[in-house]
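Its record is set out here:
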Amino acid sequence: MPQMAPMNWLFLFLFFSFLFILSILINYYFNLFFHNNNNYSLQNSNKLTNLQKNWKW
């Protein structure tokens, strides 16, 4: 059995890629539920169309 180091390149790559994907998802839901009250959104449209018209990535 080789020694399983807790900090190797595969762990660092998977950990930071997981943080990157998680930050994208948090940014998606944050813009979906908290940034709907802006000047560009219409009152008749729902949250998903507001997100599609006002995407900020």
Q: What stands out?
A: The two ends are 44 Å apart (CA to CA).
